[in-house]
Amino acid sequence: MDFLSTMPGVTWPALPGPRGVMRLALLHQLAATQWWSAEQLAQMQLRQLGELVAHARKHSPHYARTLAHLPRELDEQSWLSIPILSRDAVQTQKASLRSQSCPQAHGGRQTIFSSGSTGKPVAVEQTSLTQLFWEAFTLRDHEWHRRDLGGKLCSIRFFPDGCAAPPLGGRGPNWGGATADLVRTGPVAMLDVRSTVEQQLEWLQKEQPDYLLTHPTILESLLRALEDGAQLRLDHLREVRTVSETLQEGLRERCREALGVPLTDIYSTRETGYLGLQCPEHEHYHLQAENARVEILDEAGQSCGPGSIGRVVVTPLHNFAFPLLRYEVGDYAEVGGPCPCGRGLAVVRRILGRQRNMLRLPNGQSHWPILNYKAMNAIVPLRQLRMTQLDLAHIEIDIVTARRPDEGTEKRLGEEIRRNLGYPFQLVFRYVDEIPRSAGGKFEDFVSRVA
Ligand SMILES: [Zn+2]
């Protein structure tokens, strides 16, 4: 890393400012802890959780009430007796969950909103300290994937303040909060997700990124355009990074095919920070044990073993302003076995999105649907598509396309969709001008309204 020095008169070796030094202190430890055994990580995590629980009991009315039964010394058994905190409870009991006081050294409190994809946002408070951890784990991700920080980063994401409006987008001198005031980086160019795929292609062609950071659904529509014959020549591109949404099946392969580079995904939520980073050597995720305790639980509340899928329950270790203890974020994930890379950080094979993204079948079963975009697009050139399951028999399909297909084509599309969904649903096609993203810029391509 090409460090920036803030010490007058010192350029080499560089001395970054206090906040940069704190990030480095964390990064230095993370370089060692990733190789710890699962037991060693669990032990230190429990010690940190003890600090958090003691604070929560003292300063948050909700936890004063619900954790009164816990012994002074936190152990694994008492940890498991802490009730699961639902998203709904975070929305409705904000005042009693937040800490009435927080160590001053944790820095200013800030309210952040996690929009999810639909429905009511969750608002929690965070501190400068939680932000510091966010930055340190961003640096770990850069290290793991051996990024050349001197390269150019292009980001097609949600920029709420209008700084990255199409067609030109915005620019910055540094990659962002994690590297600012610490490392000299290449420039960053930003384009708002609320741009058309044509604008995105044109912008990328002009900007020529080394790294592209975007949402999976944005990448999917770019790849679809390329598979349809759109021209894009990116001579320097080395990697595509995706954030914020569930990664669809097959997207990695399509990315490699159409752009010739690997895809690296990140699993994080705004209210909890980084949860999983992709292993440097494999396509699964390592849980970030030093940032949050992540439990993957089955319907009975027991830990899932390798190969099974469960609810993701998270406890950020360092948020003392708004303690979230055993918070059910709403996602599902599949547990993996130990990683051959040798890191002791637990493995998650894939993140499966939320329960409302599951298809419900009349026989009582449910599963995450596979939407075969490549096959659908070969029948009707799609700009956007969203399926809404209305009940056990009907699925409504909103489509944005340049030209409305004729009856025979629509019928073929319907057959393809039914084949992928694995059930002869009645399909209701609606042709619309646009399918808007959520307030936070997220997009869900399948939502079930079946309770
Ligand atoms: Zn690994």
Characterize the structure shown:
This protein has helices at 18-33, 38-59, 61-66, 76-80, 87-92, 94-97, 128-144, 197-207, 216-227, 251-259, 373-379, 407-421, and strands at residues 109-114, 122-127, 153-157, 170-172, 188-192, 211-214, 239-242, 263-269, 273-278, 285-287, 292-297, 309-316, 327-335, 347-354, 359-360, 366-367, 384-389, 394-400, 426-431, 446-448. The protein is of the alpha/beta class. The strands form 4 sheets. Strands 4-5-3-6-7-8-9-10-14-13-12-11 form a 12-stranded mixed sheet, with helices on both faces. A 4-stranded mixed sheet has the order 19-18-17-20, with no helix packed on it. It is globular. The mean pLDDT is 94.
Characteristics:
single chain; 29% helix; binds zinc ion; 20 strands; 451 residues; GMP Synthetase, Chain A, domain 3; four-stranded mixed β-sheet; twelve-stranded mixed β-sheet; alpha/beta
Summarize the structure.
Helix content is 29%, strand content 24%.
Give the secondary structure arrangement, pairings included.
Elements (H helix, E strand, L loop, with lengths): L17 H16 L4 H22 L1 H6 L9 H5 L6 H6 L1 H4 L11 E6 L7 E6 H17 L8 E5 L12 E3 L15 E5 L4 H11 L3 E4 L1 H12 L11 E4 L8 H9 L3 E7 L3 E6 L6 E3 L4 E6 L11 E8 L10 E9 L11 E8 L4 E2 L5 E2 L5 H7 L4 E6 L4 E7 L6 H15 L4 E6 L14 E3 L3
Parallel strand pairs: 3-5, 3-6, 6-7, 7-8, 17-20, 18-19
Antiparallel strand pairs: 1-2, 4-5, 8-9, 9-10, 10-14, 11-12, 12-13, 13-14, 15-16, 17-18
Helix pairs in contact: 1-7, 9-10
The structure holds zinc ion (ZN).
Zinc ion (ZN) binds next to loops.
